[in-house]
Specification:
CATH class of one domain: Alpha Beta
Pfam families: Epimerase
CATH superfamily of one domain: NAD(P)-binding Rossmann-like Domain
Structural class: alpha/beta
Protein name: SDR family oxidoreductase
Strand order of the largest sheet: 3-2-1-4-5-7-11
Distance between the termini: 42 Å
Radius of gyration: 19 Å
Order of helices and strands: EHEEEHHEEHEEHEEHEEHEEHHH
InterPro entries: Epimerase_deHydtase, Lipid_A_modif_metabolic_enz, NAD(P)-bd_dom_sf
Largest sheet: 7 strands, parallel
Bound molecules: nicotinamide-adenine-dinucleotide
Number of strands: 14
Helix content: 25-40%
Length: about 350
């Protein structure tokens, strides 16, 4: 199997590549990434990209057609990938997450690629904690990031064909350890706070609902989408990916971390404005379509995984919310130093103040 992964050098990419190489040792994997977070490593081991057969640095906004020659599966992870970044870089978010994704899919179809896998998001359900959302529920995208996912799915649907299967995986909020860990994700933030300062500062009043999934389980879902038969979902399918057992209120998640990392104090922000993201998700369709690819990790196991990973690298930065493990901080700093321009394109080295 020849696989191209766009956006492979982020949080999910390295875990996915390891998973695919473990399960398909003969596969050939090409990585394509602009490299915004290439230096944001949380491993004492070698660079994750040594597992890849070929790493290409480039911008998905100018994707080179020739990389698609002989490719069977395209997995698109390249994105401005959370709400705070989407708010700061609204137009660029649409350009990268939506328009560039559609262009990539068109080129992939033209090149004879058989499977196109898009990393979508449950955030398109917005603020709606009345009942767990199925795929048929009304979408309520409240942020630029969520809108980019809705637009991409809609246009992708029109591109699917008998010999070009498209799968949009509407992921829950990711969590779990990775060689490029992110601490701008709720559970990862809680565990990092508990480890470094014995404190969890919940930014909301703790009531919002959030569905979560471990990065290793995301990788298993991507594997399913890369190999599924047309009979299993049709030429186009958008499916919620997570587990019905993993819909929790934020305060429940914090209390579980406190239980496993004792003496941790939990503080709520009762005065915080209502969290825009609060929804429960129904994962029955994913259960039915992919019974052999269901999530393995639960909350307890994920907290232990994060704890082991962070202590394993000697992580002890109590100011991690300002660190390079927060994606928006990384992009802001590159812009301040004139390494990235206003469009998030790399500037020539001479323009940067190093
Ligand atoms: N992490 C989550 O909670 C979550 C949940 C649902 C869906 N997703 C989606 O999964 C995908 C991967 O998420 P992640 O957490 O690994 O994100 P990430 O931000 O860690 O990684 C995204 C990667 O895309 C690359 N990229 C960004 N713009 C690019 C461009 N113009 N050209 C080429 N590469 C570019 C970045 O350099 C980065 O390596 C994203 O589409 C994201 O929206 C993530």
């Amino acid at each position: 199997m020849n696989i191209l992964i766009a956006g492979n050098m982020g949080y999910i990419g390295p875990v996915l590549v390891q998973h695919l190489k473990n399960n398909y040792p003969d596969s050939r994997i090409i990585g394509f990434d602009i490299g915004y977070f290439s230096h944001c490593l949380t491993t004492t081991g070698p660079l994750p990209e040594i597992m890849i057969d070929k790493q290409v640095f480039g911008d998905i906004r100018h994707f080179p057609d020739e990389l698609l020659e002989g490719i069977d599966v395209v997995i698109n992870l390249a994105a401005i990938s959370n709400d705070p970044m989407g708010k700061t870089f609204e137009d660029i978010t649409l350009e990268i997450n939506y328009r560039s994704c559609i262009n990539l899919a068109k080129k992939a179809r033209q090149a004879g690629v058989k499977h196109f896998v898009y990393a979508s998001s449950c955030s398109m359900y917005g603020a709606a904690d009345d009942f767990p959302k199925t795929e048929e529920a009304t979408l309520n995208p409240l942020t630029a990031y969520a809108r980019s996912k809705v637009f991409a799915e809609k246009d992708l649907q029109a591109l699917a064909r008998e010999n070009f299967l498209i799968t949009c995986l509407r992921f829950s909020t990711a969590c779990g350890f990775s060689p490029r860990l992110r601490l701008d994700l709720v559970l990862n933030d809680f565990v990092a706070g508990a480890i470094t300062s014995k404190k969890i500062n919940i930014l909301s009043d703790g009531t919002p609902w959030r569905a979560m999934i471990h990065v290793k389980d995301m990788s298993r879902a991507i594997e399913w989408a890369s190999i599924r038969a047309r009979e299993n979902g049709g030429t186009f399918v958008a499916v919620n990916v997570g587990s019905n057992a993993w819909n929790h209120q934020i305060k429940t998640v914090a209390l579980e971390v406190q239980k496993l990392i004792p003496e941790t104090q939990v503080s709520l922000n009762e005065d915080a404005p209502a969290d825009k993201r609060s929804y429960r998700v129904n994962f029955s369709k994913f259960e039915q379509l992919a019974p052999d690819f269901q999530p393995h990790f639960n909350l307890e196991r994920t907290i232990k995984d994060l704890q082991e990973g962070l202590t394993g690298i000697g992580f002890n930065d109590p100011h991690f919310r300002e660190s390079s493990l927060i994606r928006l901080k990384v992009l802001n700093r590159f812009q301040q130093k004139r390494i990235l321009d206003q469009d998030l394109s790399w500037l020539p080295i001479a323009a940067s103040k190093t």
